[in-house]
Amino acid sequence: MKGNLFMPKIFITREIPEIGINLLKEKNWEVNVGPEGIISREELLEGVKGADAILSILTEKIDKEVMSAAGPQLKIIANYAVGYDNIDMAEAKKRGIFVTNTPDVLTEAVAEHTIALLFAVAERIAEADRYTRAKKFKGWGPKLFLGADIKDKTLGIVGLGRIGSEVARRMQNGFDLKIIYYDVYRNEELEKKFNIEYKELDDLLKSADFISLHTALTPETQHLISAERLKIMKSSAYLINTSRGPIIDEKALVEALKNKTISGAALDVFENEPELTPGLTELENVVLTPHIASATKGTRDKMAEMAAQNIITALNGQTPPNLVK
Length: 325
Ligand code: GLV
Ligand code: GLV
What we know:
By secondary structure, the chain is of the alpha/beta class. It has helices spanning 18-25, 41-47, 64-70, 89-94, 107-122, 125-133, 162-175, 188-194, 201-207, 227-232, 250-258, 297-315; strands at residues 9-12, 30-33, 53-56, 76-79, 98-100, 154-158, 178-182, 197-198, 210-213, 238-241, 264-267, 286-288. Strands 8-7-6-9-10-11-12 form a seven-stranded parallel sheet, sandwiched between helices. It has a five-stranded parallel sheet with strand order 2-1-3-4-5. Helix 4 links the parallel strand 4 and strand 5. Helix 2 runs parallel beside helix 3 and helix 5 crosses helix 7 (162-175).
């Protein structure tokens, strides 16, 4: 058998936590890792050549051209993310390539970042921090940085998946908000379990004080939060997004924030990452973080292990555990 052994080639498009890389290296497989920064398209097309497995990052578009550049032996694309809108799923299916993601292990981290953003924008934390650093603080004031009330307010969750329901549970149990939700699938079991109420999307937008987005990006959810929908929200409402940027019409959001159509927004994701819509950074009533909701040490390690394990299973000829659709 010697000399005839199957020696898989794995291309990791960007450095991920070592624990995942080491799991693959321990197999004595050929493991190549892309550059430190975001990989260029040319480097990506070159790097995937001959790969049996690609471990991809959400900043890379994995389309027909990349799959062709890899070659017909490509068995699996293991995305280092729960979302997989960066992958051409139809093309992967046509070619019989497995696509996997990293669900569950990041649910708590993303839910916690969502809640941190909600509080940051409601309590005006980032704005007050800038003010204090700028040495503008001249002493305690009865009306200094008045924020929004949170207890007993209504939180509208758009997309009651793993992350959406974790945010709902924590906000209700921990901070006494009333929870309403919209999803394409109504889930009466979760409604009972969490004591939450289903609303049609526009009804939710009309009545929520805080709106948090937790849907996947698909052609149906692109610009789900449109200029028209921003107009039906309360002028006291806050919008939080830790899902995917294009779900909001970002230009319309900048207008809405400028005109105080809504009170504020907290965003971890952007329509054309890493570009920001002009005007966004000039607004005081918005909190911005650079797509880091799942970025905790423990979570990123678990994501790395999970992606590696998906590859190991697929290259051993079995169906990987986190296969998506
Ligand atoms: C991050 O945005 C992810 O989808 O995991
Ligand atoms: C993703 O993990 C979700 O179901 O929210």
